[in-house]
Amino acid sequence: MARDRRKPTPAAAAAGPVRDAEFDALLELLQAGPSETTELFSNSLALLVDRLHMDLAMLTRITDLGYEVFWWKARPDFAAEPFLFSPVGAFCDRVVAWPQRTLVIRDTRQDPAWSSDPAVVSRGVVSFLGAPLWEGGEVIGTLGVQGAAPRDFKHPEVALVAAVAKLLSKTLEIETLKNQLHLAREALELSSAVVEDSA
């Protein structure tokens, strides 16, 4: 059987190195083996800011009062404080409402769904990628990456954000299990001490 010796199209040739570069960076992150959960969070978000050339990457959790930012990474000259105290809830709402899909917004100014949103306009967010954070089969928060310039996100970039969100979701689940185990052990030790005193 003759092999297909056709050369890849320019678009396919360009997509290959981009895909490899994005996931090589993720592989390097995993191989580095951060010793602490906080280090993994920081390195993961820094990877997204750097590789996607965005302003801010942040993790939010769903609370009774709305969305709370619990970890973030911004480019050095970006004023992140307004977003840390009050993330754009409309983005988070959309991610939570459609958790099976990564939210991709290339230019909020060109999309009527976002160009009329006061929070989006006043904050100057133009591009955004968002994915859900899961724990125990439920969405508990979001991973969001945003920028002040339009971005034509490539498929490997979207996949990278989804992969990082899954990695951090598993990390959060492990931390929750470790905390539950610690509490159970403390309760068991307390019960044992009470029984010994009674005896």
Write a short abstract of this structure.
The protein is of the alpha+beta class. The protein is built from seven helices and five strands. The chain has a five-stranded antiparallel sheet with strand order 2-1-5-4-3, sandwiched between helices.
Written description of the protein model:
The chain has 199 residues and is an alpha+beta fold. The chain has seven helices and five strands. α1 packs parallel to α7. It is elongated and about 75 Å long. The N terminus is likely disordered.
Structural shape: elongated
Strand runs, count:
5
Largest sheet: 5 strands, antiparallel
Distinct helical segment count: 7
Report mean pLDDT, rounded to a whole number.
84
N- to C-terminal separation?
83 Å
